[in-house]
Amino acid sequence: MRALRIAATGMAAQQMNVEVISNNIANMNTVGYKMQRAQFEDLVYENVQRPGAQSSDTGTVVPTGIQLGSGVKTGTVYRITTQGSPTSTGNKLDIAINGRGYIQVQLPSGDIAYTRAGNLAQNDQGQIVTADGYQVIPQMTVPQTATDISISATGQFQVTIPGQVQTQQIGQLQLATFFNEAGLEATGNNLFLQSGSSGNPVTGNPGAVGFGTVQQGFTEASNVDPVNEISSLIVAQRAYEMNSKVVTSADQMLQTTNQMKS
Amino acid sequence: MDNAIYVGLSRQMTLQRQLDVAASNMANMDTAGFKVEHLRVVTDPETAPHASAGFGRAAIKYALDNGVGRDFSEGALEHTGAVFDVALDGAAGFFSVQTPQGVQYTRDGRFGTNAQNQIVDHDGNTVLDNSGGAISVDPTKAAPVIGKDGTVSQQDATGHLNVIGRIGVTRFDNRGALSKEGGNRFSDSSGQAGAQTARDITMDQGFVEKSNVNAVVEVTSLIDITRAYERVQNLITSTQDLSTKAIDALGKMN
After folding, report:
1. Could you tell me if A254 lies within 8 Å of chain B, comparing CB atoms?
2. Count of domains observed in chain A
3. Do A118 and A40 reside in the same domain of the chain?
4. Which end is more exposed in chain B, N or C (fewer Cβ atoms within 10 Å of the end residue's Cβ)?
């Protein structure tokens, strides 16, 4: 009975759905995390009777045909890249991006990664690095004598040095945008890599047309909406149950057949 | 008398297939742009005339499934905010995509771009405009804006909106003739559907159309199918009991 296998694909799909939801809930407090959604598509159809097949030799055709589906598969798990709310941290090197754009990060491998997690820090040489110690592009170094650092909305990093009236600019942050952000490849540690479907990065200063602005002392919270996730979880669980109900029904029908007297 | 058993069996076979269709609906409860299906069961018009119930009185009619009906009503729209997610308004229109097997149609508007910067569906098939061409976006400009009528435009550095194409929408004279190809796509393999360009169908950027499967209806039909199967089984058993009784009664020697 085909229904058993179809229901099994449905249960597998819902299981995957629950896994994606649980990953969202687990990352509810991850800085710059973007929630994901599983999307499904139907599997191939078996043509028991093709639509448009001839039903008689006078040329009449079957209007709709019989096509039996064989279940469901996970098509994509895509990222919803809406803005997360800025959370005040008071840390001078925390930045939240309001609007579009990713901070560019130099990976040890030489590749460039992109992140929305603006919880930056300094390393032992005073360079501005991410929470994992990877350098931010363009490279900026805070002088050892600096007492204060301020970051403008347009991404200028300025330091105050004792004995100097004017602040000194140490660098200009550049953001990268992709028009298909959902196509970026997540690599963990809040980092994303360019992929075939994300398009090429376009870099520019924060605040320019098409780029977001920078907010110092804030980080961008994840955009996971707990209420939304819990309701999705309930829907997924019920959908799983309903698919298992199909298994029960198919089983009952088979049992009925088995009890047939001969 | 055995005819009752065969008629019952014909019904049980259609019930098994009905369960398969219900299972497919249930499995695709979360599939974007999925349209719920139901098996149509009729009395077999081609039942042989000599298959009569004996004494030439009532003709026997077997049950036969003669088609899968698809309910094309619009599914709920879910807001995703993604630039390349597009949902069609109303139930009439379809996007058209170029697949290796020819042009196919879909209600699933979760699009993206490929390496050539063309707008593609989730399987990488190019989305077609009304004249059957692909739509290319310029990666150096801002994210595209898709208007209600499907016009795709991008803002350049000076703030001007440039129209780069229009997503095509197709409607059909007879949607029932479309066949499903998997991957949320339909095709007009029989050529009976009568595809027409539709310029009046609107769409919404940032939304995805969910499946139109109604869980309550499906669970109810599941119960219905199981019980009907048991009912027919009882009929078959009673028929067999009848034979057994006849043999017992008539076979007594004294």
Report:
1. no
2. 2
3. no
4. C
The complex scores an ipTM of 0.70
Same domain, A100 and A214: yes
Residue A70 makes CB contacts below 8 A (sequence gap 6+) with: A2, A5, A6, A9, A43, A44, A45, A46, B24
- Any idea which residue has 């028929």 for tokens? B239
Looking at beta carbons, which residues of chain A come within 8 Å of B39? 66
| Residue A231 maps to a domain | no
Residue A228 resides in a domain = no
Q: Is B91 part of the contact surface with chain A (CB cutoff 8 Å)?
A: no
The sign of the torsion formed by the CA atoms of A17, A22, A25, A27 equals negative
- Cβ-nearest to B31 among A41, A78, A181: A41
Is residue A75 in a domain?
A: yes
- Cα dist from B233 to A10, B12, B47, B105, B230, whole Å: 28, 8, 22, 42, 5
**Whether A250 contacts chain B with CB within 8 A:** yes
* Spatial contact of A130 and A116, defined as CB atoms under 8 Å apart: no
Same domain, A23 and A131: no
The answer to whether the CB atoms of B139 and A202 lie below 8 A apart is yes
- pLDDT, one tens digit for every residue, chain B (254 residues): 578 888 899 999 999 999 999 999 999 998 999 999 998 888 876 655 555 555 555 677 888 888 888 899 999 998 887 888 999 998 899 999 999 999 999 999 988 888 788 899 988 899 999 898 999 988 777 788 999 999 999 887 777 888 999 999 999 998 888 888 888 999 988 888 889 998 899 999 999 999 999 988 998 999 999 999 999 999 989 888 888 888 888 887 76
Q: Which range marks the domain in which residue A188 is found?
A: 86-220
My answer on whether A49 and A62 are in the same domain is: yes
